From TrEMBL:
InterPro entries: Flagellin (IPR001492), Flagellin_C (IPR046358), Flagellin_N (IPR001029). This is Flagellin. The keyword Secreted applies. Keywords: Bacterial flagellum, Cell projection, Cilium, Flagellum, Secreted. GO terms for cellular component: bacterial-type flagellum; extracellular region. It comes from Celeribacter baekdonensis. Residues 4-137 form the Flagellin N-terminal domain. Its main location: secreted.
Length: 504
């Protein structure tokens, strides 16, 4: 049936043309924007995911900037610590040269002072945008990642860089909880009194009996001329003195005993006895170090130095300070982050050495069996009070504490400087190694973030970007369809005109 009121063909043609025009508009939008999903109405779920990922990409771009800033700061610190290591090595060369007594130590000291000033200059200048990693002890956190959990929550991750304090500051001794139980002094005073062993010649001696006595690994033998034990004792004493062992003397007491004395500061002296007899002669070490009996035939005379024995179990925290009193003066060291009892012992040694006390010498030792660290203090002068204590909550001493107190103008100063400069060099090497390790971590993370950003960007593109080849082909097809739709609509609109012929 034909109708002049309802043109069904025109309505169908118009609907088809509208659909074609809509698809053509979308295709043209894809071509102009380059996106298949340009807004939420195109595909709400894909659009939402893409926007979340785009925000992550923006965050990772900011993280790349943070890592670049951190890497630059670390580069400055690493260069500074390596330069300081080289300067300290130069100072060590000067200190070694000062060990000879026939050199101009005053000129060597002038060179050392100039190098110390250069070290301080390097440390003072080693900052990037105001941030220095070679002064202070607080850790520095560098933003390294954004971690998105499955529930959508986001947390920031950091790379923690340890500051390595290479300043020469003495720190500040605290007044917190007592640490006195972590350190024990071997005596209440340190003096120049020799330690001794009493060697007793007893029983009956016959002519040609041979008494042997070994001191510090050197053996002497005395052949008895008769039965007098006093002759044997005095004869052994004379032979020991004839050896010329530094710090070791022997005295015949005229009663069959002799006293072997040692003033060696940091070295024990072994003593052992024996005999080859025709009669019943006997030689025994009956008293060692003046304290008690020894019925065996050998032993050691202890070193003269007193010691500060440090705990083998207590942990060392930042701000823990230990103080050694020698005479009327006290010398302290305050530990920094991550330090140990070894560092405390070496720090206390540096503190005492820095005072330049003429008769006082120090060394640091570790017990091979127990692993216990100790500071040994020797006094070649009159007796001085000796004690140790400790407290928490101080401000840490700098890693190059004691550097500006190096003084090689005296024998004692030159000796002390040789050990202390090694400690300072090790501290600067540790700092350089720590910074180098952190640089490696940041470089690795920076590379990962760059690759991750590229991967995320590519993933977002695969979701929302338009396939331009497909869009181009679709555009051409839709343009043809549009033309056909227009023609179809035109034909449909002409259909009512044919009805007029029925009334002609």
């Amino acid at each position: 049936m034909s109708s002049i009121l309802t043109n069904n063909g025109a309505m169908v043609a118009l609907q088809t043309l509208n659909s074609i025009n809509s698809n053509l508009s979308k295709t043209q939008s894809m071509i102009s924007t380059g996106k298949d999903v340009a807004s939420a109405k195109d595909n709400s779920s894909v659009w939402a995911i893409s926007k979340v990922m785009e925000s992550d990409v923006a965050g990772f771009n900011a993280i790349s900037d943070s890592l670049a800033l951190g890497e630059s700061t670390l580069s400055v610190a690493a260069q500074a610590s390596e330069t300081v290591t080289d300067l300290l090595t130069n100072i060590k060369e000067k200190v070694v040269a000062s060990q000879e007594e026939n050199v101009d130590r005053a000129k060597i000291q002038t060179d050392i002072d100039a190098l110390v000033g250069q070290v301080k200059s390097v440390i003072g200048a080693a900052q990037f945008n105001g941030l220095s990693l070679v002064e202070g002890t607080d850790d520095v956190k560098i933003l390294s990642s954004l971690d998105r959990a499955s529930d959508g929550t986001v947390t920031a991750s950091d790379i923690t860089v340890n500051r390595m304090d290479l300043s020469t500051s003495a720190g500040t001794y605290g007044s917190g909880t007592s640490l006195a139980s972590n350190a024990t002094a071997s005596a209440a005073a340190v003096s120049n009194t020799a330690n001794t062993a009493i060697v007793t010649v007893g029983n009956t001696w016959a002519a040609n009996d041979v008494a042997t006595l070994s001191v510090a690994g050197i053996e002497v033998s005395f052949t008895a001329a008769g039965t007098a034990v006093a002759d044997v004792g005095d004869g052994l004493a004379g032979l020991i003195n004839g050896l010329g062992i530094e710090g070791v003397t022997a005295t015949g007491n005229g009663d069959g005993t002799l006293t072997v004395s040692s003033t060696k500061a940091f070295e024990g002296v072994s003593v052992s006895v024996g005999e080859t007899t025709a009669g019943d002669g006997d030689v025994l070490i009956t008293t060692l170090n003046g304290t008690g009996s020894l019925t065996a035939t050998s032993g050691d005379i202890d070193e003269r130095a007193e010691n500060i024995a440090l705990s083998t179990s207590a942990a060392v925290k930042e701000g823990d300070g230990y103080k050694v009193t020698v005479g009327g003066s006290s010398y302290n060291y305050v530990a920094g982050k991550g330090e140990s009892m070894e560092d405390v012992a070496k720090g206390l040694k540096t503190a005492i050495d820095s005072a330049g006390l003429a008769d006082i010498s120090t060394t640091v030792a570790k017990d091979a069996t127990t692993g216990q660290w100790s500071l040994k203090v020797d006094n070649a002068g009159s007796s001085l009070a000796f004690s140790v204590t400790g407290n928490e909550d101080g401000k840490a001493s700098g890693g190059l504490f004691g550097l500006d107190s190096i003084d090689v103008t005296s024998n004692s100063g030159a000796d002390a400087a040789l050990g202390n400069i090694e400690t300072l060099i090790n501290n600067s090497i540790d700092a350089a190694a720590s910074f180098g390790s952190a640089q490696g971590r940041i470089e690795t993370q920076s590379t990962f973030i760059s690759n991750l950003t590229d991967a995320l960007t590519s993933g977002i593109g695969s979701m929302v970007d338009a396939d331009m080849e497909e869009a181009s082909a679709k555009l051409q097809a839709l343009q043809v369809q549009q033309q056909l739709g227009v023609q179809s609509l035109s034909i449909a609109n002409q259909a009512p005109q044919s009805i007029l012929s029925l009334f002609g």
